[in-house]
Amino acid sequence: MVPTKKEELRKLVTQTTMETYEELTPHLVQMINDTAANPELTDAQKQDEISLHMMGFVKSCTNEIIIEVLADILGLE
After folding, report:
1. The whole model's pTM is what?
2. Angle made by CA atoms 4, 16, 36, in degrees to the nearest 5
C-alpha cells in the first residue's frame, strides 16, 4: 500500500507498530524473566539489565517498523 495522504501513512505506521510490538514482546518477556531469575545478579544489576533489555526492545521495534513501512511503500520484499 502506497499512502497518498498523511492519515493513510499514520494508519500504516500504527498498524505496523502494533504488529511489531506484538511479535517481539514475547522475546522481551523471556529476557526479563531470565534476568530476574538469575541468582548471580544483585537486584540493582537485574534492574540495570532489564533497563537495557527495554531500551534494546524499543530500538529493535523502531528499526523494524521503519523497515516494514518503507518496504511496503517501496514495494520491497
Report:
1. 0.85
2. 160
Q: Give the tens place of pLDDT for each residue, 15-30.
A: 999 999 999 999 999 9
Q: Which long-range contacts (CB under 8 A, 24 or more apart) does 62-68 make?
A: 64/20, 64/24, 65/13, 65/16, 65/17, 65/20, 68/16, 68/19, 68/20
One-letter amino acid identity for 35? T
Instruction: List Cβ neighbours of 27 (8 Å cut-off, separation of 6 or more).
Output: none
Q: What is the pLDDT of residues 30-47, one digit of tens each?
A: 999 999 999 999 999 999
